[in-house]
UniProtKB/TrEMBL annotation:
TM region(s), chain numbering: 20-37
Keyword Membrane: yes
Domain GGDEF: start-end pairs: 182-321
Organism: Cavenderia fasciculata
Lineage of the organism: Eukaryota, Amoebozoa, Evosea, Eumycetozoa, Dictyostelia
Protein name listed in UniProt: GGDEF domain-containing protein
InterPro entries documented for this protein: DGC-Regulatory_Protein, GGDEF_dom, Nucleotide_cyclase, Rev_trsase/Diguanyl_cyclase
């Protein structure tokens, strides 16, 4: 059997001879990899700048509050000129940026124009040592308008435009919290013989009646009155600044008389007289958290009125928890 004798010195020389080749190959791969990344980042950065330049709603900003200079995409203007062009208050802008941002992580600040017709979002960093903000400003007016439209859709009845049941309890609590007196009142209202109107004149004309009544609720309401559509032909009227049960009765009688005074013109050229039934509850504004009980009590009071069970037409009662 032949035994191969390994010459370690020779093997070591061969390895060293190949080492430079392997080393330079690995170095070349690393350099090529880094070059590719740099080229890609440069291309992405160029593309990003192209997008910013073409999008008029996005501006790159550097605001130097010490020098009162604003550098934008392509120009430099004074802080006063910049704020004037966007109808922004310069003091508000500076205070919001200083109080909300830092130099370590990007933050957002929301700014609105003096007329509240335009809204802007500033995203970037603020360096307190140099009193300089660097970042971008985005005109998000359209986004804000769409959001407000969505909120309005959620909180208002599609048919009548009145407030709806969405977050009803919160609405009533916030509304009553602004009462100048300790008492408020709530009234449950429905249309008399509304089913007969639908059966006789059709549901389209029933909708005409509901819209007409809702419009009058709004027309004769001031800032102390909140009309709400619950469902179908049922409505709530919330009144704040109430001094007594007598005043509450006088208010609702006068208010509903104005709503009922004119006939409603239907689509088929027919005019009909609409009448309403109601029941009311006077309560302390601190009790507005018990909305369920208040509405139930007013509802029961209304049905007593429908059945002529209330003496002297007195439709309002003091709420007892």
């Amino acid at each position: 059997m032949a035994i191969e004798i390994i010459n370690f010195n020779q093997l070591q020389r061969q390895s060293l001879d190949r080492f430079p080749t392997n080393y330079f190959y690995i170095a070349f791969c690393i350099i090529f990899f880094l070059y590719t990344i740099q080229k890609r980042d440069k291309k992405s950065s160029s593309r990003f700048m192209e997008i910013l330049s073409s999008n008029q709603s996005i501006s790159i900003l550097e605001i130097n509050f010490n020098n009162r200079i604003v550098r934008t995409n392509n120009s430099s203007v004074s802080l006063e000129q910049f704020c004037q062009s966007y109808v922004i208050d310069s003091i508000t802008l500076q205070n919001n940026i200083i109080s909300s941002m830092n130099q370590f992580s990007p933050s957002d600040v929301q700014i609105k124009s003096k007329s509240c017709s335009s809204y802007y979002r500033l995203t970037g960093k603020y360096d307190a040592s140099t009193n300089v903000f660097q970042g971008i400003m985005i005109d998000n007016t359209q986004e804000k308008q769409q959001l407000n439209k969505l909120k309005n859709t959620l909180t208002h009845d599609a048919l009548t435009g009145l407030q709806n049941r969405y977050h009803l309890y919160n609405k009533i609590q916030k509304f009553c919290a602004k009462s100048s007196s300790e008492q408020c009142s709530i009234y449950f209202i429905d249309l008399n013989k509304f089913k007969q109107i639908n059966d006789t004149h059709g549901h389209d004309n029933g909708d005409v009646v509901l819209r007409s009544v809702a419009d009058r609720f709004q027309q004769f309401a001031d800032e102390s009155v909140l009309p709400v559509r619950l469902s179908g032909d049922e409505f709530l009227i919330v009144k704040r600044n109430v001094e007594s049960n007598t005043q509450a009765d006088q208010f609702i009688s006068s208010y509903l008389s104005s709503v009922q005074c004119d006939t409603v013109q239907l689509n088929n050229s027919t005019s009909i007289k609409v009448t309403l039934s109601f029941g009311g509850v006077v309560f302390n504004k601190s009790q507005s958290t018990q909305t369920d009980k208040l509405i139930k009590c007013a509802d029961e009071r209304m049905y007593q009125m429908k059945k002529n069970l209330l003496p002297n037409g007195n439709s309002t009662v003091t709420f007892t928890a």
